[in-house]
Design a protein that fits this description.
Length: about 260
C-alpha cells in the first residue's frame, strides 16, 4: 500500500484519538546519529560485547572499565541533536496535551526537542547515581561536583564513598516499579499507541503495545523493518521516523 495512503490512514486514526501514547526505541534517535545499543562499537570498544559491559556484575568486577565505556558512549552521543522525528513528536504534544512518550532510549533528545511528558523506562545516560542509592532510589550524584581528582578514576558517592554509576537500567536489573506502572497505565488508558523505532525485543517495554490492544486501543508502528510489534500493529508504516512523522503531523495540522 502506498505510504501516502498509509499516512492518511494514520491521520484518520489520530484525528479520532482522544488519548494518544507513544513508545519509542533507538530507531527514533538513529537519524540523529546515535548508534543503537547493538551497533558495532569502534576502536578500543570493538573488542567488547556491550551487553556484557552493561551489567551490575561487570561493574562490580571492573568498575573503571564499565565507567569508561559509559564515558565513551556519552562522548559519542554528546554532539547528537534532535531530528525531525523528535521535533514532530514535540509538536504532537500541542494537539494531544495529555500525550506521554514511553521511551527505551537513554539519550535526552526527546527533552531537547521540547517534549515534556516522558516516561524513561531505561534511565538517562547523562545522569549518574550512587551505586548503593544510599539516600534513596535514585541517589543522583552530579559528577562535576565530585572532587575532580577522582574523575580519572571512577567517581565516589559524596555521601557514602561507594562508586558512582550511570543512572541507566543494566541487563538483569529490574525497572523502577513507579516508571513501569506509569507506562502500563498510560498504555492501558490510551485509545491509540504510536510505536516508533523499536525492535520489540526487550520486555517489559515491548509489552506496552499489547496492553493498549487488550484495552481496546489501536497500534500504529513506524519502522523501516518488520519488528516483533508489526504482527500486532493495526497499521505498519514502513519507513524512517524522520521522514514519516513530520508528514503525519503536517497532515494533522491541515485536518
Ligand atoms: P534496537 O536497536 O533493538 O531496534 C531499533 C529499531 O529501530 C529496529 O527495529 C530498526 O529497524 C528501527 N529503526 C532503525 N532506523 C530507524 C528509523 N530511521 N526510523 C524508525 N525506526 C528505525 O533498539 P530498541 O528496540 O530500542 O535496553 O532496543 C531496546 C533496548 O535494547 C534498549 O533500550 C536497550 C537494549 O538492550 C537497555 O539498555 C536496558
Ligand atoms: Zn552513596
Amino acid at each position: 500500500m502506498a505510504i501516502e495512503h498509509q499516512i492518511q490512514q494514520a491521520v484518520a486514526l489520530m484525528k479520532a484519538s482522544e488519548r494518544l501514547v507513544v513508545l519509542t526505541g533507538a530507531g527514533v534517535s538513529k537519524e540523529s546519529g546515535v548508534p543503537t545499543f547493538r551497533d558495532a562499537l569502534d576502536g578500543l570498544w570493538a573488542q567488547y560485547d556491550p551487553t556484557r559491559l552493561a551489567t551490575p556484575q561487570a561493574f562490580a568486577a571492573t568498575p573503571k572499565l564499565v565507567w569508561d565505556f559509559y564515558e565513551y558512549r556519552r562522548q559519542i552521543m554528546r554532539p547528537a541533536l534532535p531530528n525531525p522525528a523528535h521535533r514532530a513528536l514535540a509538536q504532537l504534544e500541542r494537539r494531544f496535551p495529555e500525550m506521554q512518550i514511553i521511551t527505551q532510549n537513554v539519550d535526552d533528545l526527546h527533552e531537547q526537542a521540547g517534549s515534556t511528558r516522558i516516561i524513561r523506562l531505561h534511565g538517562n545516560i547523562n545522569a549518574n547515581k550512587c551505586s548503593k542509592d544510599c539516600q534513596g532510589d535514585p541517589t543522583n550524584v552530579v559528577v562535576a561536583d565530585v572532587d575532580s581528582q577522582q574523575q580519572r578514576d571512577v567517581p565516589r558517592c559524596p555521601h557514602c564513598g561507594s562508586y558512582v554509576r550511570p543512572d541507566v537500567v543494566w541487563f538483569g536489573e529490574m525497572l523502577s516499579v513507579e516508571l513501569l506502572d506509569a507506562a502500563k497505565i498510560a498504555s492501558a488508558t490510551a485509545d491509540l499507541m504510536l510505536v516508533i523505532g523499536t525492535s520489540g525485543v526487550v520486555i517489559p517495554a515491548a509489552d506496552m503495545p499489547q496492553i493498549t490492544r487488550r484495552a481496546g486501543g489501536k497500534v500504529i508502528e513506524i519502522n523501516p523493518i518488520e519488528s516483533n510489534i508489526t504482527p500486532i500493529a493495526d497499521l505498519w508504516l514502513c519507513g524512517a521516523a524522520g521522514d514519516i512523522l513530520p508528514r503525519i503531523v503536517a497532515a494533522l495540522a491541515d485536518a
